[in-house]
Write a structure and sequence with these properties.
Blueprint (H helix, E strand, L loop, with lengths): L1 H4 L3 H8 L7 H10 L4 H5 L6 H12 L4 H21 L1
Protein name: XRE family transcriptional regulator
InterPro entries: Cro/C1-type_HTH, Lambda_DNA-bd_dom_sf
GO molecular function, one term: DNA binding
């Protein structure tokens, strides 16, 4: 996320731990980097399945082909595990 936002991981950590406050410019870059909207950040609500699926679609396009394949393998593994438990 830090790389996509063009800031250091250390600065992200400081924001997460409430040691630093991001400027508006940095906040905008972080929101875009995580692929969400300001509405979701400022007024979190229950996320619909459709919104979640759309967000996954947007984010996966930002991943390399190898990372996309890893995500697919992870989903396959999760579904296999779920079926075994049933």
């Amino acid at each position: 996320m830090a790389e996509r936002a063009g800031i250091s991981p250390r600065f992200v950590s400081a924001i997460e731990n409430d040691r630093r406050k991001p400027s508006l410019d940095v906040l905008i870059r972080l929101v875009h980097a995580i692929g969400t909207s300001f509405d979701e950040v400022l007024m979190p609500q229950t996320i619909s399945e459709e919104y979640t699926a759309d967000r996954i679609k947007r984010l996966i396009t930002q991943c390399s082909q190898r990372d996309q394949e890893l995500v697919l393998a992870l989903i396959d593994q999760m579904l296999d595990s779920k079926e075994e438990k049933q």
